[in-house]
Amino acid sequence: MNLEDVNAVKQLLSAPQKIVVVPHKNPDGDAIGSTLALWHYLKKKGHEATIIAPNDFPKFLKWMPKNEEILIFEKQSIQAKKYIEEASVIFTLDFNHLGRIGQMEPLLEASQAIFVMIDHHQAPSGYAQIMYSDVTMSSTCEMVYNFMESLNDVEKIDTDMANCLYTGIMTDTGSFKFSSTTSRTHKVVADLIDKGADNTAIHNRVFDTNSPSRLHLLGCALGNMKILEAYSTAYITLSQAELDKYNFKKGDTEGFVNYGLTLEGIQFAVIFIENAEEGIIKISFRSQGSFSVNEFARKYFDGGGHTNAAGGKSEQSLQETTAYFETVLENYKDQLTA
């Protein structure tokens, strides 16, 4: 954060505020970890704080300290609307465009609260009066740690906050293997462990609580994998019928897309997941090296994200979407096989 923004936040938080903290729709470990850690911090500072998530989050995150305090807008909209209308400050974490919060978007657009954005995705929109935006950061959780450090409040990080922040950093760095993981990231994580983060327990709770149906779904996904050697690309498809067959629960497909990148010679991995309720194909893109899936997703699939990790969607059928994907791949053959 620059000095001007630090001073603005200090002034903003110098008196008790009614604060709402918002993650993006379909929140992941970084979104939930960062919002919970910030919520704990704001409560310690004497503010009235409430987390409102657009929709529910995966079961493997529901051990996190005070996760039961999170309001789910889809289930508790009347109560959530009241908090948003009364808020004097709204923090938005792990997203940078109000289009990422689904049905909550018009409520936040109408709010007269002061907005503070903390996010590491590319191309932020300008809705926030105070923006801490840094695409070089490993995760929003690392940014929340930096945010507290900028306010000279790192000593306020307790065991609960440390566990939340560690979870988000761990999940958003692919267990510290992605290129966004820096020496600074490891220093932050080391301090979080010193402050009480139980790294072994966190890994177990996130990665070692699979249901048999999830592993069967993974087997189905891998069985559907198509490898396009000419483009150094692999993609997975999952239809709604397949999701239903294996009793799909929110979060069950987390990480599936990364399996493509474990194949020798593959630079670009994609998963296409049919969502009949929303009438779309949800898409996750991953890459290695300099190939920008953020630019690819923005250009062809109404999405975006980071250079090596992005999301998108299609309103075509699953078959039409993958056919279109294979067609546009031809434009990138030289980049992907260089």
Automatic annotation (TrEMBL):
Residues 245-325 form the DHHA1 domain. One of its GO terms (molecular function) is nucleic acid binding. Pfam families: DHH (PF01368), DHHA1 (PF02272). Transmembrane segments: none annotated. SUPFAM superfamilies: DHH phosphoesterases. It comes from the Bacteria. Gene3D superfamilies: 3.10.310.30, inorganic pyrophosphatase (n-terminal core) (3.90.1640.10). Residues 18-169 form the DDH domain. This is Bifunctional oligoribonuclease/PAP phosphatase NrnA. The lineage of its organism: Bacteria, Pseudomonadati, Bacteroidota, Flavobacteriia, Flavobacteriales.
